[in-house]
Amino acid sequence: MRLNFISAAFAFALGAAAIAVSAEGFDNSRTDTFRQLELFGDVLSRVESDYVTEVDDAALIEAAIEGMLESLDPHSSYLSPDGFRDMQVTTRGEYGGLGMEVTIRDDMVTVISPMMDTPAERAGMEPGDHIIAVDGESIVGWSLDDAVALMRGAVGEPVSITILRGEDDPFDVTIVRDTIPLRTVAWREEEGFAYLRLAGFNEHTTETLVRTIGEIREAFDGEIPGIVLDMRYNPGGLLDQAVSVGDVFLDGGEIVSTRYRNPRENQRYNARPGEMLRGVPIVVLINEGSASAAEIVAGALQDRERATLVGMTSFGKGSVQTIIPLRGGRDGALRLTTGRYYTPSGRSIQATGIEPDWLISSRRFDVEEAEDEQMSEAALPNALENENGEDRPVIDFSAVEQPPEDWEEGEDYQLHRALEVLRTMTGREQASLN
Description:
The chain contains eleven helices and 20 strands. By secondary structure, the chain is α+β, with helices and mostly antiparallel strands. Helix 1 (16-22) runs antiparallel to helix 2 (31-50). The termini are far apart. It holds the Pfam family PDZ_6.
C-alpha cells in the first residue's frame, strides 16, 4: 500500500568489517557512500562497547534513520511500526487525542493547525504555538513521534500542555483528550447562503462532501444561492481526495499536476465533465493554517476562476509525500517527499503559499508584531525552496483589512466579509442581522 500525502529497510551489519566487505565489487562511484556506512558501523560499535550504560541497538538505529530523513525536509520521516499503525488509524478511523497538526520548529513541537471541532480548537490553540511541556515534562528537543505519543492517550483523560506563544510568558492549558472524529465536512445556513466547512482530506472526505451537497440542495429547494467554502486551518491530507474534491467544483479541465524526480512519473489530474454546483457562486476562506491538499483545491478554484478567495496567505506546502511500508509495515514505513505539485496555471506554491483575492484578517493586530509572527512552510527547518526561486510574498500588513475597533470579540470577521463578497457576487440584498 502506498498513500500519497499532500501530510527501516536498512539491514545494518554491526561492525566496520562487515560493512566494508559488503562494498566490494561495487562501482567506484559508490565508494564514498560505503565508506560513510563503514563510519556508521564504527560509531555504533564504539557506542555499544564503551558507552557508560548499555544501549538499545534498535533504538539507536531508529534514531539514526529519523535523523537522516529529518535532514531532508520537514515532512520526510520514519514511522515506527506503532507510528505507521497510528497513521493508518488517522486516515481511516478515529483516535484518542487533542486534534492538531504539528511539526518541529526550533527544536519545539509547533502547531500548524488545530482541527475542526476538536479539543485543541476548543482550547484556543493557534498556529505557531510552541508546545514545550506535557504534564510538566519538557519535550523541547524531542522527536515529533515521541511528543505526539505523549500527548495521545485514552479518551476522557486530561493532559496539561505548556504553551509558548510569541513573547508572552509560557502558560498551561489543560485539555481533555477526546475521540478525534473522521468527520471533515459540515454545513449550516448563514444569512441565506450555505456555509460549507472542509476541515481535512481523509479517505471519506469526497463521499461525505457529495452527500452534504445533496443535503444543501434539498434544504434550498434545489436552488443553492451561493456557498462559502471554509478551508481555514485545514492541514491537508490525501492527494487523491484533493483531486476528487476539486472534481466536485470544476467542470473538466486541470485540477493539479505532480512532478517527480523521474519525469515519467509526472501526472496531470483533470476534472470530469459535469460540475455538481454549476452556476453556484463560491467564496473560499483560507488562512495561514490552510496547507497542502487545501491549497491544491484553493489554487485550482482560483486559477480556473471558479471562486473568489478571502482571508490570509496559505501555509505554502507544495510537496507530495508517499508512505512506503517497509516489509509490509512490520518495520514501519517511510514518509518520503517524492514530488511537487502545481496549480493549473503552473504555479508552484512551495514556500510561497496561495495569496487570496481579498486579504482580510480575522483579528486586529499590531503591524510590526504580525510581521514577526507569520507561520509558514518557508519558516520550517530544512524546508524545500521554491524551485522557481520565488520567495514567500512579503505581506504589507498595513494594507490588510482588519476588523473595526468596535467589532465584537468572538464573532468571525472573515466569514462576515466572505458573506458580503458572496452577496455582491449574487446581487442579493443583505439579510437582516436582527
